[in-house]
Specification:
6 helices, alpha/beta, FAD/NAD(P)-binding domain, 8-stranded mixed β-sheet, 301 residues, D-Amino Acid Oxidase, Chain A, domain 2
Length: 301
Amino acid sequence: MARNIGIVGAGIAGLHLALYLQKHGVDATIITDRPPDEYRNIRLLNTVAHHHVTIAREDYLGVNHWTDPKDHYYYHDHVFNFPQPLSFRGDFSKASRAVDYRLYLPALMQDFLKRGGKIEYRRIEERDVRPLVARFDLLVVSTGKGPLGQLFTYRPEHSPYQQPQRRLCVGLYTGVRQPDPMNVTLSVSPGHGEMIVIPTITFGGIANALLMENVPGGDMEELATLSYDDNPKHFLGCCSASWRSITRRHMTASTLRVSIWRSRRISCKAAWSRPCATRWSSSTTANARSHSATSMPSSIP
């Protein structure tokens, strides 16, 4: 008996499920509010890295379009800024890689469509739930946003936290010197937050996501309150002053260009006790428009 599955949301969960069902001959319809051609000009969605288990799933589904080993990374550097600093390297058994989701999601949507899949482009309201349930044999909710996401509310009995534990800010930067092979660096400053440097495949090739995870109330939190939109020069100047001491070892002499994505809030005060090594908590996020700036000092992911 033929089954008809509805999937609300075209993120990685919805797309991988739809492609898997399609591969096994099950009809699936994705419902999303954004067509593929709108992704290029939106704000950076996230800074997600895919480890080898996800890459293996992409191979199985026939949607791994980023196979060049030079674009993958192979180990993590960890730096803990304790009174007695600790640093170590962790090598992976298999390579990982990060792709800008403004490239990744529309590519998989096109794969699904080319193989005969159906995508409906519309926003789902709460009043649409009952008709959708009646229409499909199974309705899968794979989005945490909008009216459907709001049906699944915060459950205080399942978490000791009543607010986000980090306030985030991240940008995509070119001009960062890449090691060979590439790696991710995690630098931890207790009481202030973490900084993660992630080499990422984006529209112009490889850039570095510099992710600041700031502890609310810590010295770094101030950066999350700055707005690139309001004052680009001030934003970049404050970030440069903070990042210079952290990332000095990785910068080339070239001018930086930055695509800004930020969560609600991040800090200008340099709370990091030492530079990153030889070289990304729960949070509620709000996206910021992508921008390009060419006047940032080169000495400052």
